Amino acid sequence: MPTKTITESDLTATIRDNDIVLLDFWAAWCGPCRAFAPVFERASEEHPDIVFGKIDTEAEQALAAGFRITSIPTLMAFRDGIIVFAQPGALGAPQLEQVISGVRALDMDQVRAEVEAQRAAREQSA
């Protein structure tokens, strides 16, 4: 499946309605972003069950700010609506495959339990 341009209007539905979503925060003027783009595109073709979304930080400044993007490219991975990976910097194909394998292998019951424990701890300290 080719990469998909993600905007503020379809971000929530994209994350909610798909099991795994990878987001590439990028800008046209960014050299490392341009170097990572074909790697991301090839991976999207090799993994048709995953949504590969691209967020142009110039066009979608509110999204970039909302996710606190301070360096691009930044790759984020969501599984079952939960952010499970976020890292700035261009990845090579082997590193991106490693991220994809790691996201696929997650025990989501454990992840949900950890998220709930963190939420409860924040509420308790507030």
TrEMBL record:
GO terms under cellular component? cytosol
Q: Which Pfam families match?
A: Thioredoxin
Q: Could you state a single Gene Ontology molecular function term? A: protein-disulfide reductase activity
Keyword terms of this UniProt record: Disulfide bond
* Stored InterPro entries: Thioredoxin-like_sf, Thioredoxin_CS, Thioredoxin_domain
Q: Which residues are in the Thioredoxin domain?
A: 1-105
Q: What is this protein called?
A: Thioredoxin
Source species, please?
A: Agromyces rhizosphaerae
Query: Taxonomically, what lineage is the organism?
Result: Bacteria, Bacillati, Actinomycetota, Actinomycetes, Micrococcales
